[in-house]
Amino acid sequence: xxxxxxxxxxxxxxxxxxxxxxxxxxxxxxxxxxxxxxxxxxxxxxxxxxxxxxxxxxxxxxxxxxxxxxxxxxxxxxxxxxxxxxxxxxxxxxxxxxxxxxxxxxxxxxxxxxxxxxxxxxxxxxxxxxxxxxxxxxxxxxxxxxxxxxxxxxxxxxxxxxxxxxxxxxxxxxxxxxxxxxxxxxxxxxxxxxxxxxxxxxxxxxxxxxxxxxxxxxxxxxxxxxxxxxxxxxxxxxxxxxxxxxxxxx
Length: 250
What we know:
This protein has helices at about 10-15, 35-45, 55-60, 85-95, 110-120, 140-145, 150, 160-170, 205-210, 230-250, and strands spanning about 1-5, 20-30, 50-55, 70-75, 100-105, 125-130, 155, 175, 185, 195-200, 215-220. It is of the alpha/beta class and about 250 residues long. Helix 1 runs parallel beside helix 2 (about 35-45) and helix 4 (about 85-95) runs parallel beside helix 8 (about 160-170).
């Protein structure tokens, strides 16, 4: 499958992580600024030919805010070196993988991209999603993720509940988020090997998913809204993990 990746962050990440799968790289002829020069330098360094085109040509190809740069690449190759479920569990068992983000039914590509961006920033080592209840990692996800979609391993699983059980057996502590939880996330110990489970927009995590969690936690909500957007909540929860682990490391 061929798809355009666009925007400076996403294209630069693709050049650095997946340059061998880029079929062509376009840069608007009117972009001569520092960011454009940086893209040119990275492309030259990895041997990708850059073509200067008129901006209207990019407008015709890209349905989104491309910023004057786009790379046409084989998107099936993005997952070629990612973890599979077996390798993920082996990494947990060996202690090499200690932080996993699980997204239960996040179907909006903007939310998925934002979650991947937060996951990368927080040091998440893998993101787990169900095959049939998740947005595809497409150009929109790549643009929103600002490069994280090109480097973050995303493990697609057929049965999420079974996968959580396998992670538990490997030694991961499964912490799910739910508005019905009794405990605040700030009162939970998140310093060990952890798989943080975030639910879908509106519905939250599914009942069967919740049943496979070792602990359910929630964020305090002081206003009239009952929940945060999943990407916002993911960022808040992940950086609580980061905070706790920074204290432990002192």
